Amino acid sequence: MFTTEGKKIIFTDKAPKAIGPYSQAIRTESLVFTAGQVGINPATGELVEGGIEAQTRQVLTNLTNVLEASNSGLNFVVKTTVFLKDMNDFAKMNAIYAEFFSENPPARSTVAVAGLPKGALVEIESVAMLPDAHGD
Hints:
By secondary structure, this protein is α+β, with helices and mostly antiparallel strands. The chain has helices at 51-69, 90-100, and strands at residues 8-10, 25-27, 31-34, 37-38, 40-41, 46-47, 77-84, 107-112, 122-129. 22% of the residues lie in helices and 28% in strands.
C-alpha cells in the first residue's frame, strides 16, 4: 500500500492545465496514472481544428508530454482507455493511435460516451510504468 509520501503530483505546461480539481498525472513508486487528455492545444487553451484525426494527434502529443514530465513515455504505457464521442470515428482515431503505438501497443478499451469536456471528440487516459522502477 502506498502512502501519500509515495504519491507525486505531475504538472507540465506542455499539456493543457487541469480544468477541474484533478492532476494531469499521479506518479507512484512504479506507475504513472494520467488524467484523460483531450485535443486542447496547451498554448491556446482551445481544441485543435481538423476533426477526429487532429484531435487524436493532439491528445497523444499531450499524453506524451505528461508522461515525459513523469519520467516515463509512450513505450512504457501498459493500458489506455479511449473515450469517443462517436464510435463512427473509431477507424480514423485508430489510424492515428497506431502511429504513436506502432510496436507492442498497450492493452486498450474504447468506449462511446455521450459527451466530453469542451465538446471534444476523443479523450485518452493511460497507465504507464516507470523505467527506473523496473531496472530498464
